[in-house]
Write a structure and sequence with these properties.
The protein has 149 residues and is α+β, with helices and mostly antiparallel strands. Helix content is 36%, strand content 41%. The protein has a single domain, classed as Nuclear Transport Factor 2, Chain: A. The protein has a 6-stranded mixed β-sheet. The radius of gyration is 19 Å and the shape is globular.
């Protein structure tokens, strides 16, 4: 049987295109899997997943209906993560994630999920934007979430 070179090249292009299109989502899933694994093991390497230029925004919702939004510089947030992990381990303070979805966002991927605080027993929405940190490794470019006292 003789192969048709144009059809073979076209088929290769389609397969390559599908692989190329899936690559960012695959990388995003790997980042989020590692994020969860490091969090659950209280590993300070969790801080290293954040790009140095990451935007961290948290809205704190209070029982009386008030809310307060803060932005934390990436370097400070990384320090907070490393400093708080021993206390988090001692109290069993970690989160689980459900309703996880991945969506292209330019050359990056937006991950949205519902985060459940095991210690405080509440759920809240969260969003991570993951992509290249300016080097070959992917990391967290943005984390937007909510918390409760």
């Amino acid at each position: 049987m003789q192969k048709h070179p144009v059809l073979s090249a076209f088929a290769l292009l389609i397969v390559s295109g599908a692989t190329f299109a899936e690559q960012p989502q695959t990388q995003a899933k790997a980042v989020f899997d590692k994020y969860q694994s490091l969090e659950h093991s209280f590993d300070p390497a969790l801080a290293d997943l954040y790009c140095d230029s990451a935007l961290i925004r948290n809205t704190r919702k209070y029982p009386d209906g008030r809310s307060r939004t803060i932005e934390i510089p990436a370097g400070k947030y990384k320090e907070l993560i490393r400093a708080s992990l021993p206390a988090a381990r001692a109290s069993g303070d970690y989160s689980t994630y459900s309703k996880v979805s991945y969506a292209p966002d330019g050359s990056n991927v937006r991950i949205t999920a519902t985060r459940y605080s095991v210690l405080k027993e509440y759920s809240s929405p969260m969003s991570l934007l993951v992509g290249s940190c300016g080097r070959s490794n992917w990391g967290v470019l943005e984390e937007i979430g909510q918390s409760q006292p």
